[in-house]
Every structure is written in structure tokens, then in C-alpha cells.
Amino acid sequence: MNRSTRERLGLLAVLVFPVDGAWLLDPGNRQAARGDNLSFDYLVVGAGFAGSVIAERLARVYRKRVLVVDRRPHIAGNAYDHYNDDGILVHKYGPHIFHTNSREIFEYLSRFTAWRSYEHRVLASVDGKLVPIPVNLDTVNILYDLNLTSEELEKYFASVAERREFVRTAEDAVVTRIGRDLYEKLFRGYTRKQWGLDPSQLDASVTARIPVRTNRDPRYFTDNYQAMPRDGYTRLFENMLDHPNIRVLLNTDYRDIRAKARSAEVVYTGPIDEFFDYRFGPLPYRSLHFQHQTLDCAVFQEAPVINYPNEHPYTRVTEFKYLTGQKHSKTSIVYEYPRAEGEPYYPVPRKENAELYKRYKELADATPGVHFVGRLATYKYYNMDQVVGQALKLCHKIAGASHRTIAPFREAS
Ligand SMILES: Cc1cc2nc3c(=O)[nH]c(=O)nc-3n(C[C@H](O)[C@H](O)[C@H](O)COP(=O)(O)OP(=O)(O)OC[C@H]3O[C@@H](n4cnc5c(N)ncnc54)[C@H](O)[C@@H]3O)c2cc1C
After folding, report:
1. Are 11 and 242 contacting, i.e. CB atoms less than 8 angstroms apart?
2. Cα distance between residue 329 and residue 284, in whole Å
3. Residues of the chain whose pLDDT is less than 50?
4. Which residue of 18, 191, 316, 376 lies most exposed, with the fewest beta carbons within 10 A?
5. Which of 271, 290, 269, 226 is CA-nearest to residue 391?
6. How far does residue 175's CA lie from ligand 1's centre (Å)?
7. Whose CA is nearest to atom 15 of ligand 1?
8. For ligand 1, mutation pick of 72, 92, 96, 225 (most atoms within 8 Å of CB)
9. Beta strands of 187-264 (E only): which ranges?
């Protein structure tokens, strides 16, 4: 944890509870830990969006005492950002761009942050050219040296689109809309790198919702609300969790404390297969390796994100200053290398995996006192706003229900 993060976390009543069971952190909190009656109405596993929203609502609205545990050394889950050694705000787990069509969700999060208006842009490097993503009129005109109008582009797509009786795979979903050549140039290689599978082996859902435009709109998202937390995501989470009824234990794995917490009402946002000790086998995930770099120049690339569908082992490069608006003489970027092993990031959307998840879901439904929420616990890729929405809904549902209080944690001797 770097200094700035530690300083920020110091704002919270944060206790670090390492696996050997001894309370750590500053003496003030240590005293507080000993002096407090550490009993809670809810144990929340995971301090990402799912866990933190639920903790905040339970504490603030329903006056519940909530213990949040996370096995990572920081809050904010995958949205965690921090100032690196050069003082540049970076997203540790890859670029996180906030966008939503829900006023309710945007207004809810606005309680914890001011916003910086930001519309995301992505370019793809193809055949030595940089072209807008999602595919739009400029993408096609630049790639093929054409000067089509929107109407002509519609006709072009109609002429190159392949016919299929059923759209079953990610390949079908693309070639039936924009034809094989654009699919090969922009989608096939990227998808193969990202998933380690050919699009013909993946569900249509992977590419079905990728927009294709016949106008020149270069925005990556078209949601009504597009913005970045002005002071970063971690600060947003600090504000969210800053409540006297909330305690946060970092470096704490639920598996190491669940025996002590067995009488708690639990909100679980970790991997569902792990919760059940992989009884039916592990659910497949795709992971990423993030290679962060700081460069001695003010600007590195022409867009916030550049995709590399056909070159290099990495899929994309993000330059953070575009996202954060930070002014700095240096710049920080991150390369993303997809891989099979590592932190679980993307559930692999295949039919057999959905069936395996269903078996775990049945177990979850039959487990009283534990609520499963968030992307890992429901084995589904969700954007941040969707997870916030899911968490708000769950909170309304569970908070009225009766609850038990968990036994106080004891300091290890
Ligand atoms: C590379 C990447 C880029 C993304 N970009 C965007 C984007 O631009 N816009 C967008 O809207 N969404 C984006 N997302 C999705 C976003 O990250 C998720 O929607 C969000 O993080 C989900 O929140 P969560 O709380 O469900 O999960 P997480 O953020 O993963 O939080 C779960 C937490 O639970 C903890 N945990 C798990 N198991 C245990 C355990 N046994 N004990 C203790 N703690 C545990 C984990 O350490 C983690 O901190 C992106 C995701 C990735 C991987």
C-alpha cells in the first residue's frame, strides 16, 4: 500500500486483520478494536461496489452494524485506483469508465463523489491505421480508403453481411452484421486474445451487443451519464464506507474467519464456486496481467485506449491521464495481457459454464443467511452501474428480514 493510499484509508475506521489473526494498524484503531464491542448484524465479504454499496445502505439507512472484509490490502475491488510512485492516478486493475442510463444510480453515487465529465474514446490499430471503435462511418472509410455516406454504408453492410439461419456464436453475431473482412480485421484476433478461444467457440452474447454505427459518432458509450469520479474511485469508496456503523478489515479472507462468523447474516461478493469449495469443479474465468509503465513524456498515444486486434500479445493500451484529466509532465499507461490463470476477471460465456453456474446457484438458493451478489458471486460480467443497481435492490430485499448478530471477534493470543 503506498503512502497516499494509507493516508486516505486512515480516514476510515480501517482495521487490518492479517491471516495470522493479530490486529494491526495504527494504535488508535488498535485501541478502538479492543475497546469496541465488535459484534455485527451483517458480515459483508468484499469491499468492491457490490459489498460497499450494501454496507453503506445497511449502515446508513437501516442502522445496521456491518463488518466488511476483503482479502486484498485495499477497498474498492477492481475499481481501485491510487497515485503511483510518480504521483499519477492509475487504475490498478485496468481502466474503469463509469457510464449509466440510470439516474437513480448516478444520483446515489453522487452522494460520495463529485464528477468529471468524460466521454470515452477507443481507437484500433489495424493495417497501420488508427480507426474508431465501435465501428462507424469513419472506421470503414479510413480502413478501405472510401468516402461513403451513412446511407451508402448501410448498403455496404447489407451487401457484405453473411446470412445465417440462427445466430449462435460470437462469430455469427458479427459476420451477419458487418461481413467477414471487418470481422477478421477488428474482431477475430482481439476476441481470440481476450478469451483464448475463437469467436466461433463463444456465445453470441460476447459480441451481440457491440454497437455498429453508420454515423460518425466516435464515443465508446452513448449512456446518458458518462463521468469519472473527480477524486478517483478509491476516494468515492472511502466516503461510502465512512460511517460509524461500518468496520473494514483488509487482508482478511472470509475462508479464514467464517468459522468465527458462522452465526452472521452474510452478504457474499466473492466467487460462488470458491464459497462452496469448488464442489462441482471450478467455474472458468479469463484473467489479465496488467503491465503498468510511466513514461517521461506528457502524452503517449492519440487516444485514451488503443486496441491491438492483430498485433502484439496484449489487447490494448490505456493512458490514464485522458481518463482522469490529471495534468502531469509524465504519463502512465497500462498494457493488458489476457491469460487463463490468475485473478478471476471475466466469466467465460459458454453454455457448459452457464450450466455449471446453475448448479452452484441452486446451492446458493438453498443456503440460508447468505446473500450472493456482484459479478463473482453471480458469475456474470457486469458493469459497475449494474452491480450498484443489483446491490441497491438486494439491500431493500434483505434489510427488512430478521437478522442475527455475530459473535465478537477475539484477538489472537
Ligand atoms: C479489466 C476490467 C475493466 C473493467 N472496466 C469497466 C468499465 O470501464 N466500466 C464498468 O462499468 N465496469 C468495468 N469493469 C467491471 C467492474 O470491475 C465490475 O463491475 C465491478 O468491479 C464489480 O464489483 P464487485 O463488487 O461485484 O466485484 P469486485 O470489484 O471484484 O469486488 C469483489 C471483492 O471481493 C473480494 N473477495 C473475493 N473473495 C473474497 C474472500 N473470500 N474474502 C474476502 N474478500 C474477498 C475481492 O478481493 C474483491 O475486492 C471492468 C472489469 C475489469 C476486469
Report:
1. yes
2. 42
3. 1-37, 402-413
4. 18
5. 269
6. 31
7. 383
8. 96
9. 225-229, 246-250
- Ligand 1 atom nearest to CA at 78: 29
Q: What is the DSSP string of 350-364?
A: -HHHHHHHHHHHHHH
- Ligand 1 pocket: which of 225, 269, 278 to mutate (most atoms <8 Å of CB)? 269
Residue 26 pLDDT: 29
Residue 153 CA: distances (Å) to CA of 131, 133, 160, 237 = 16, 16, 11, 44
Phi, psi of 196, rounded to the nearest 5 degrees: 70, 15
Tell me if the bond preceding 229 is cis, omega within 30° of 0. Answer: no
d(C-alpha 96, C-alpha 74), whole Å? 16
Torsion, Cα 92 115 105 403, to 10 degrees, reads 60
Residue type at 178 in one-letter notation: I
C-alpha distances in angstroms, 152 versus 23, 67, 141, 185? 67, 59, 11, 21
Please tell me the predicted confidence (pLDDT) of residue 262. Answer: 57
Q: How far separated are the first and last CA of the chain, in Å rounded?
A: 27
pTM comes to: 0.89
Domain assignments of the chain as residue spans, ordered by start? 3-118+230-281+348-399
- Rg of the Cα atoms in the chain: 23
Q: Nearest residue CA, atom 1 of ligand 1?
A: 94
Nearest ligand 1 atom to the CA of 120 is 8
Q: Does domain 3-118+230-281+348-399 have CATH number 3.40.50.720?
A: yes
Q: How many Å lie between the centroid of ligand 1 and the Cα of residue 140? A: 35
Render pLDDT for 56-90 as a digit per residue (tens, 0 to 9): 999 999 999 999 999 999 999 999 999 999 999 99
Residue type at 7?
E
